[in-house]
Design goal:
There is one protein chain. The chain contains 5 helices and 4 strands; from the N terminus they run H-H-H-E-E-E-E-H-H. The protein has 272 residues and is mostly helical. It has 2 domains: 64 residues; 170 residues, f41 fragment of flagellin, N-terminal domain (Up-down Bundle). The two termini are 19 Å apart.
Length: 272
Amino acid sequence: MISVLNSVSQLGAENALSSTQASLQNTLLQLSTGLKINSGADDAAGLSIAAGLGANIAALTQSSQNASNGVGLLQTADGALSQVTSLLNKAVTLATEAANGQLTAAQSTAADAAYQSILTEITQIGSTTNFNGTAVFSATPMTTFTSDGTTGGTTTTSTTTGALSSTTLALDSTDLTSVAKATAALTAITAAIDTVSGSRGTIGASVNQLTADANVQNAEVTNLTSAQNSVQNADIGTTVAKMTQYNVLEQTGMAALSQTNQAEQSVLKLLQ
């Protein structure tokens, strides 16, 4: 039957062509963005998963940086304490020399002046050493916050370096002006060396912990990024193949639509 009111074949060709063109546009969008999920309409569940993974990756990336900053601060503290240890070793030499009892008064005065200078330098190291504008030696704990982006995945690591000065090392009241005082100073200096060594040990353990945390976080970022890519990234080879397919379908669809139009034109020939 020939009809001029409703052409089922024409409507079918138009619908098919419209669907093909929509698919082609979506494929071109995927190629331009590199993503197979560009809106919730593409894959609502996949979009939610990719967004969640993205949040995890962002949190872990910043957490790794937080841990690295914490390591930097602690390494700064350790370096300063290493200098303090060197100064205390010099103080041991001076105190041992002064305790010998064979120095003249002038020599004892000179040895004590050098010793007091060392104590002043230790105090200066404690008050001026900083990391990113923050005092390194303080009674306030240095905290490092890390998170994987989930409610239960947060950790806070605290390390207290403590204040550093000749007073905190119990050396502020010592001098080398006599044999007895030099002997007492030597005992105090030895105790101070042990204190500094203990602090360096605590700092070293925290550095190891934060370094391990950063390594784990970096590994998790790599794994989660791979998972996110699998969910949201377009397979370029497959997408190009689809584009070629839709291009061919578009051309054949337009040809089919043209043929249906020509069929309708045949009605006019009956009237001529």
